[in-house]
Amino acid sequence: MIAAYGAWPSPVDAELVASGSRGYAELRGQDDALFWLESRPDQAGRSTLTHWHEGVSRELIPAPFNARSRVHEYGGGAFCVADGRVYFVNFADQNIYGIRFDGDEVDAPWQVTEGDATERFADLVWEGTAIFAVRERH
Question: Can you name the residues that pair with 19 across neighbouring β-strands?
Fold first, then answer.
C-alpha cells in the first residue's frame, strides 16, 4: 500500500495498545519465591497478587479482591509476605486481608482489620508475629 506519511489505515489504535498492557509493581522476594502486584486492564484495572515459585506463576487473590491502597491517594506497600501467608490491602474497603497458601492450596481471604471508610492502610511489613503498617484516618 502506498499512502502519504501517517495517512495509512491501521488496526492498531491507542485503545487496543492500552487494553492489553499489564502493569507490574511492588516486587518482593522470600526464600526462593517472588511476589508482585499485577494490574489487569481487562478486569477494570484490578490489581492481583501473583506468586512465582520454581518457574510457575499463579494468582493468589481471587476477584473481586483488588490489592491496592489509597493512603495519601496514591497508595503503595499494599502487601507483605509472612511464611506461607500474604497480607494485602483490599481497594474496596481499605481493610487488610490475609491468605494462607501451601503448594497448590490457597485458602480464601480472611479479613484482618475492622476499619471503616475513614481508615486506610499502606506500607505493610511483617515482623516476627505482627503486621506493621501506616494507618491514615480521614
Answer: none
Is 7 part of a structural domain of the chain?
Answer: no
The predicted pLDDT at position 117 comes to 75
| Radius of gyration of the CA atoms of the chain, in A | 18
Question: Which whole-number Å values give the CA distances from 20 to 37, 38, 40, 48, 121, in the listed order?
Answer: 16, 12, 8, 15, 29
CA–CA separation, 63 and 5 (whole Å): 44
Report the CATH number that the domain containing residue 133 is assigned in CATH.
2.130.10.150
> In terms of residue numbers, what domain contains 123?
15-137
CA–CA distance, 20 with 16 (Å, rounded to integer): 7
pLDDT digits (tens, 9 = 90+) for 23-39: 889 999 988 899 999 99
- What is the rounded average pLDDT of the residues 98-115? 90
10 inside domain: no
Domain count for the chain: 1
Residues in the chain: 138
120, 69 contact by CB (below 8 A)? yes
